[in-house]
Amino acid sequence: MSKRDYYEILGVDKNADADTLKKAYRKKAIEYHPDKNPGNQEAEEKFKEAAEAYEVLSNSDKRARYDRYGHAGVNNGAGGGGHYGGNMSMEDIFSTFGDIFGDAFGFGSFGGFGGGQRRSVSKGSNLRVKVNLDLKDIAHGTTKKLKVVKHVACKQCSGTGAKNGNSYTTCQTCNGTGQVTQVQNTIFGRMQSTTICPNCRGEGKIITEKCTACAGEGVVKGEEVINIDIPKGVAEGMQMTIREKGNAARRGGIPGDLIVWIQEEKHPELQREGSNLLYEYSLSFPDAALGTTIEVPTVDGHARINVPAGTQPGKVMRLRGKGLPELNSYRTGDLLVHLNVWVPKKLTKEDEDKLQAMRESESFIPKKEEQEKNFWQRMKSYFEE
To answer: C-alpha distances in angstroms, 349 versus 354, 355, 361?
Structure first.
C-alpha cells in the first residue's frame, strides 16, 4: 500500500472536520468501489487506501499521532499485521464503514461487492491490553508474552455451534447465501434491494441441534498465550493492532483484534524527549574550573565524559547515538548531559578563608566580554546541531 499523505489521499486539508472527512471518504469509496470497477486491481487498491486514510483521520487519537509523527505514529511496526500498511481487508472495510456508503449502489449498505452476494460474517469484539516497557525495551525492541483471557472457539463443535460440528442444514430461504433479494415496483420503476436473510440472520445455515458445550454460540471462555513483537523506537500512547487475536466470533466468524497500548516506564535518572535522552549532572566548582572526568548513565550502562577545564554552568554535552532509535527509521537520538555547578550552602571557616582569597584573585573576577561570547557560542551551537 502506498504511503502517500492521508490528507492528500482524501483530498482534504489538515484542518478538515469530521463531517468533511466523512464526505470526502464516501466520495472516494463510491468512485473506487469494486462493484463499480469489477476486476480493476488499481481501483481496489485505491479503495483500500482511502479506507486506511479514513480509519486514521476519523479517530482523534490516531489523527493526533499521525499529525505529530506521520506514518510512524500509527504503523504497527513488527508483529502486528494490523490494518495499517495495506492489510485492511474488504471484510474489515465493509464491517467498519458500511454505514457510510448507504444505498449508493442499491445494495443497502453495500450488501455485496465484486459483483456477487456474500453471507453475513460475524466478527468477535476487540480486546485491549497495556504493555509496560522500559527504555532498554524501547531501545532494542522486545517480545512480550501475554496470557489473554478471552472467548475462544469451542473445541467440541469446532466453533460452529452445532452438535458434533455438523448438526446444521442449509437455509432454504436464501439457499445458503445469507441474503435475500427483493424487487419492488415504484413510481421510478422496478427497484432491487438486498437484505440479510431473516430466517438464518445472514449465516446461510440453520442449526438443527445445538452444541451442549457452548449452547450453540460456538465460543467459550478460555485463554491464549500470545507473543507480541514490539519494534524499537515506540513511545508512550502508541498502539499496535494484532489481527484476529481478540475474542473469537460466534459460529465460525472472524475473530476480533487485540489492541496493544504502549505504556512507558520512567527511568530513575534519564528523561526522554522524543528520540533524545536528557540527564542533569551537578559539578563541584573545582571540577568545573579544573576539569574532570564524569560517569553518566545510558540505556545500556554507563559512559565516561571528559569535562574540560573552565566549563561554564548550563553547558550541554552531547553523546551522539546514545539516545533512542526512531520508529521505522535508521536514525538514533543523542544523550544530552546538562551540566550545573553546585554551590554549597554551608562552609567551614577554612573554606570561607580559601574562597575569600579566590574572590580577591584576578582569575576569579567575571569578565563580561567572555560571558557574552560564551552565551552566543552556546546559542550558535544549539542552532547548528
So the answer is: 9, 10, 19
Q: Find out if CATH 2.60.40.10 is the number for domain 123-158+212-264.
A: no
- DSSP secondary structure letter of residue 83: S
This prediction has a pTM of 0.60
DSSP 152-166: EE-TTTTTSSBGGGT
Do the beta carbons of residue 64 and residue 70 sit within 8 Å? no
Task: Please give the torsion angle defined by the CA atoms of residues 175, 177, 178 and 182, in that order, rounded to the nearest 10 degrees.
Answer: -80
DSSP state for residue 119 in the 8-state scheme: -
Provide the 3-class DSSP secondary structure of residue 290.
helix
User: Running along the chain, 385 residues long, what does each successive block of 10 average in pLDDT?
Assistant: 79 90 89 77 86 89 83 56 46 57 44 45 87 95 94 91 88 86 73 82 87 92 93 91 90 88 94 95 92 96 94 93 91 95 90 86 74 56 53
Show the beta-strand stretches assigned E in the chain: 112-113, 116-117, 127-133, 142-153, 168-170, 179-186, 189-196, 205-207, 219-230, 239-242, 258-264, 271-273, 276-284, 292-298, 301-307, 316-319, 335-342
Distance CA 90, CA 113 (A): 9
CB burial string 255-264: b at 16+ within 10 A, e below? bbbbbbebeb
- CA–CA separation, 277 and 318 (whole Å): 10
Phi and psi torsions of 43, nearest 5°: -65, -40
What are the C-alpha distances in Å from 4 to residues 33, 50, 277, 327? 20, 11, 31, 18
Distance CA 263, CA 133 (A): 6
Q: How far from the centroid of its chain's Cα atoms is residue 148's Cα? A: 20
Phi, psi of 147 (to 5 degrees): -100, 115
C-alpha cell at 42: 488499481
CA geometry: angle 234, 224, 207, nearest 5 deg: 125
Q: Which CATH number is correct for 1-115, 3.90.1150.10, 3.90.660.10, 3.40.30.10, 1.10.287.110?
A: 1.10.287.110
Taking CA atoms, 369 is separated from 148, 171, 173, 375, 376, in Å, by 65, 92, 94, 10, 11
Q: CA 241 → CA 17, 82, 84, 174, 379, distances in Å? A: 25, 5, 9, 35, 43
